Amino acid sequence: GWPYYAEEAWLATYDGGLCASLYVSSQVTAFVGTNNRSQVTIIEETDYPFDGKVEFRFQLTTSTQFKLYLRIPRWCRKAPTLSLNGNVIFNQKTPDDGSYLILDRVWVNDDVLSFTIPLQLNTKTWTSNHNAVSISYGPLTFSLAINEQYNRIGGTDDWPEYEVISKSNW
Fold first, then answer.
1. Fewer CB within 10 A of the end CB, N or C, for the chain?
2. Sign of torsion, CA 12 18 22 27?
3. What sign results for the dihedral spanned by CA atoms 108, 9, 87, 94?
């Protein structure tokens, strides 16, 4: 659920770096670099998964070298783009099985890293499910609206519990 997503959005790495593993508007403050002695705050702003652009703003009291790992989602089939302070620094194809971009550099106060993951339509045929087809746009899978019937099965008036079943073919 959402608590797990928020908890796993930022991870410390074994080499004194940070990993942006799940994209969500957030802020992390951590000790990084050699012997984890320098403090950095990274402010992440994004509308992901509805938009593929993610922006990271760095706040440091001293310039510090550390690795920043950026997860490339498995569904991403086109080249992501990275810009640092407005200058493109990466725009090439990555492996198809999901991977990480690793930026090992000296980060300075007010650095702005823009990361764009290109969203695109994908289809998948589920041969084991009567050749059903799913359609996705980036990380989002479209769903068909169906009529539903709510049956109360318990709970209280303040916190009712329902089962929801289909009232139409799907």
1. N
2. positive
3. positive
DSSP string, 76-145: --S--EEEETTEEEEE----TT-EEEEEEEEE-TT-EEEEEPPP-EEEEEEGGGTTEEEEEETTEE----
Domain covering 2-116 in this structure, CATH number:
2.60.40
pTM for this prediction: 0.82
Answer positive or negative: Cα dihedral of 31, 34, 37, 39.
Answer: negative
Q: What are the tens digits of pLDDT across the range 109-152?
A: 999 999 999 999 999 999 998 898 999 999 999 988 889 999 99
Q: Where are the domains of the chain?
A: 2-116, 121-166
CA–CA–CA angle 17, 97, 53 (5° rounding): 60
Which DSSP letter does residue 8 get?
H
* Residue 49, preceding peptide bond in cis (omega within 30° of 0): yes
